[in-house]
Amino acid sequence: MSKILVIAEHLDGKLNSSTARAVSAAAAVKPEAIDVLVLADNVDAIAADAAKIDGVSRVLTVARAENAHPLAAVLAPQIAKAADGYSHVFVPSTTFGKDVAPRAAALLGVAQLSDVMSVEGTHTFKRPIYAGNAIVTVEAEPSHVVVATIRTASWPAAASGANNAPIEALTLDVTLPSHTRFVELKQGASDRPDLQSASKVVSGGRGVGSKENFDIIFKFADKIGAAVGASRAAVDAGYVPSDLQVGQTGKIIAPELYMAIGISGAIQHLTGIKDAGTIVAINKDGEAPIFEVADFGLVGDLFKILPELEAALG
Ligand SMILES: Cc1cc2nc3c(=O)[nH]c(=O)nc-3n(C[C@H](O)[C@H](O)[C@H](O)COP(=O)(O)OP(=O)(O)OC[C@H]3O[C@@H](n4cnc5c(N)ncnc54)[C@H](O)[C@@H]3O)c2cc1C
User: The whole model's pTM is what?
Assistant: First the structure.
């Protein structure tokens, strides 16, 4: 029987919804148990949140000062140790998971399985390849522990509230490396919703034309309470910072509403919005490929259409 260890992702003492998405993927394996591992300095609030997620059997916590910041070099040896007795270790395929999971896999002597989008069997999974142009079925070696990252955009967050899983403190006999230490975290301060988990996203592309012009995107996003994203061309041109990039080499997102403004719809961009609900495109070129995937398309100048839309919203 399978036993799955899900690694909790958290920030500022709060559990990230990516964890509940990884729990959904774990539930699809139909395992005997799904345990969530919380590695933090203060574990209580995070563990309490994790214990409420449907399907979670136990929450295991390791409270150590060294776990105050998610340093992969520090977390991976603890994950590898805690993985003892588990058939699978699932980690969300977010920046956090992509950092920590390969290290844990290497320490366990296995190859990591990346971006699981569906579970076909206990050791058979589907994942995207070629920038999402093809889906490959992968079979993991049943005699080895499966260390997998879970493509969060492909999985709904498991419901929360009805469960009350036991929380157990774990003592892991593991020497942590001292070669990597936390110096400082630099992150863009923003009151806007987080791009990766927002239900509405407004993205601008090269068509927006300049850093200054991008204000029109920020203004419209604020009007509808959306997060802001961008194409790689807009990022490369310096209109916005790279953490706003959506696509193959940026963020993979699944908002309910995605608005692509002045974005042509290159395959590398579309792979980041494959799981979006409603897609709206505004582009002056009626032949732009974005219209092939858009549910609603407005052909015209974004500098004319956006103010009109904004006015119509009142
Ligand atoms: C390995 C690799 C990885 C990549 N990863 C990513 C990725 O993660 N994300 C990503 O986005 N791209 C990625 N790319 C780049 C991708 O191929 C495209 O070059 C990029 O997405 C184009 O961005 P864009 O649509 O903003 O620009 P363009 O393709 O130049 O499109 C601009 C659009 O704006 C429209 N426009 C111009 N002016 C106006 C106006 N006034 N009003 C309305 N519309 C207007 C034009 O008609 C045009 O369709 C990657 C490429 C490679 C090779």
Answer: 0.82
